[in-house]
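Checklist before submission:
- one chain only
- standard amino acids only
- sequence pasted in full

Submission:
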Amino acid sequence: MLPLRLCTRRSLGHLDDNASASRRGLEEVKMKWYLVASLLTVLTSSQGILTTLSQSNGKYKYDYATVPFLAEVFKLIVSSVFLWRECKKSPPAKMTTDWKSVRLFPIPSIIYLIHNNVQFATLMYVDTSTYQIMGNLKIVTTGILFRLFLKKKLTNLQWMAIVLLAVGTTTSQVKGCGEASCDSLFSAPIQGYMLGILSACLSALAGVYTEFLMKKNNDSLYWQNVQLYTFGAIFNMARLVLDDFRGGFEKGPWWQRLFNGYSVTTWMVVLNLGSTGLLVSWLMKYADNIVKVYSTSMAMLLTMVLSVFLFSFKPTVQLFLGIIVCMMSLHMYFAPPNMLVDLPSTVRTDPESLVNVPVDRKTDS
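Returned file contents:
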């Protein structure tokens, strides 16, 4: 006779240990991306403030096109240093150098390049306030592309939370109906709305595709960053060269005026933009696009609140309502389901209550 009770309890013990270790690992990763997402919110919020402070009498003394280029170079240098440190460890960092894999990394830069041109085209048809409000469409389009291309399933509550986030950010940006800009929201030509929708889709597509690249294999995050930022620096340098040709080299080649007009605040803008990009790549690797969308949306609201104290920005009822709706959305998306709805409690079987079932050992006769 073989009692199964002891074997069953040992098996359950091993399963419980493995499950506990897995839960601890997931909790550690979650704590890390909570921290990274919070830091991203602060840096993204300070980006607009620093950019405003870098102006002199409402104008830039430096060529603003050099800022993204230097930010890409900064991200490339930081990622290269961390990759070099990883390669010295044992085992070394995993790096896929096959051309079929490397050739995918210029695509996000190409999408962002097209997106920037669509942005300028959109602003030809709509005013700045309307463009900002239409930009919130990228919150919903990110969720849609997240579901279609990455096959990530979202619950009904999470879909409601994403829509609420878009509504909340839009509400915070809508001005009082007594102002002229309120009428301009629905008076733009149809081309402006179509380009605005295209801009939102391109922004979401670039983010979702970047997440796909970061998660398609187990390559080192820093190796993937090196590839992304190398092409990013190349495309931004190409833009500077193109600006030179358009201007007939009146101000000289771009490398001779690269740091013209730079101040301490301008360098803070560069470092802030570069650090933000590094945090976004980490979230793409270990979290997802939705976390990034929430971080940047909360950053926008934080910027508005800080502007009240820094730039004498007058708070509106719409701003307070938008903040409340966005906080509700944040809770709905990330809170455990049992905190949002009443779920039936599950009964866990006590190992002590297991029945000791004897089994005959069969022997060959």
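Reviewer check: The first strand starts at residue 2 and ends at 3.
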